[in-house]
Write a structure and sequence with these properties.
Distance between the termini: 56 Å
Number of domains: 3
CATH class of the largest domain: Mainly Beta
Helix content: 40-55%
Order of helices and strands: EEEEEEEEEEEEHHHHHHHHH
CATH architecture of the largest domain: Sandwich
Strand order of the largest sheet: 1-2-9-4-7-12
Strand content: 15-25%
CATH topology of the largest domain: Jelly Rolls
Number of helices: 9
Shape: globular
Structural class: alpha+beta
Largest sheet: 6 strands, mixed
Oligomer: single chain
């Protein structure tokens, strides 16, 4: 494994897949820094500190601290760090790694290409890699390879899960089924990033490049709920976390998760949890504040 400062990231081609003879890490604290969009290799992008934006296959999103993005070979990727300092870490896997080959061609991770929260175990692995010196020492090499193998194994398990999920779609042709699943997964990620604002069916179906009826049917097939229900559940999950903060009154929590009406928020919260927001806060160890 080789380690480089992020500022040493080469200017990759926009049309040719880069080749790595060994595992490579690019990381350092930067601000006002841009990596132009380029043809990407199999790997992952992790935030060791701060928040920064990235563009993946034309869609720009944010990557927060202790979250990571899996990138598929042949995807188009670019990165932008603004004025607050952040520390991206880009790990590219060795091109000859058997797990990255499939029948002589590059393995397809398109179903897995999304943002994931890092578990404590995953964080530990990443920080071990980031702390290893750039050395040809056999001990350092063996340690890095062991950690990277464990990360690859986890990514492959994600990919297998996504492949199994895509089988819920009643489409005979595998390529069509996987493309539909990937579009739905992109919509799900968009909801995760934007659940606290108004999201219309037009917008979500447009991101999936599907007509309304087809999108609703497939989304419900894969995620077992409509997009509207998914948004409500995501808002309620976020509200539960915010209610643990004694500095936020219930009305502020309501606005923060995307509702303008406190009565609507309280009603939906109680439907899904059996408690009002105030009762939930009290049961979780906070002070009860009448609503």
């Amino acid at each position: 494994m080789r380690s480089f400062a992020l500022t040493d990231h080469p200017a990759f081609s926009t049309t040719t897949l880069p080749y790595f003879p060994e595992h490579v890490i690019f990381t350092s604290k930067v601000s006002d820094f841009v990596i132009p969009q380029h043809q990407c290799h199999h790997g992952l992008i992790y935030s060791l500190g701060g928040t920064f934006s990235f563009t993946l296959n034309g869609l720009t999103r944010m990557l927060e601290e202790n979250k990571f993005l899996i990138v598929n070979g042949n995807s188009t990727f670019g990165l932008h760090v603004g004025s607050p300092v952040a520390q991206p870490m880009m790990l590219y896997f060795q091109s000859r790694t058997p797990a990255l080959r499939a029948g002589g061609d590059a393995a397809d991770w398109n179903l897995t290409e999304r943002i994931y929260p890092a578990t404590d175990v995953f964080k530990e692995r990443i920080h071990v890699l980031a702390s290893l010196p750039d050395s040809c020492s056999s001990f350092i090499t063996m340690k890095a390879d062991a950690v990277i193998r464990s990360i690859l194994f986890e990514i492959l398990s994600f990919n297998q899960y996504a492949s199994n999920e895509s089988m819920k779609l009643d489409v005979r042709k595998a390529s069509t089924r996987q493309e539909n699943y990937k579009r739905l997964a992109v919509v799900r990620e968009w909801i995760e990033d934007n659940f606290n604002r108004t999201l219309t069916l037009d917008e979500l179906a447009g991101i999936a490049a599907m007509n309304h009826q087809h999108f609703l049917r497939l989304f419900n097939k894969v995620f077992h709920k409509t997009p509207h229900q998914y948004i409500i559940d995501r808002r309620i999950a976020e509200a539960k976390q915010l209610l643990l903060d004694p500095g936020m009154v219930v009305a502020d929590v309501c606005l923060a998760v995307g509702w303008d009406s406190l009565s609507t928020f309280s009603q939906l919260f109680k439907q899904r949890t059996g408690q009002t927001p105030g009762e939930y806060r009290k049961a979780s160890g906070g002070d009860y504040i009448p609503e």
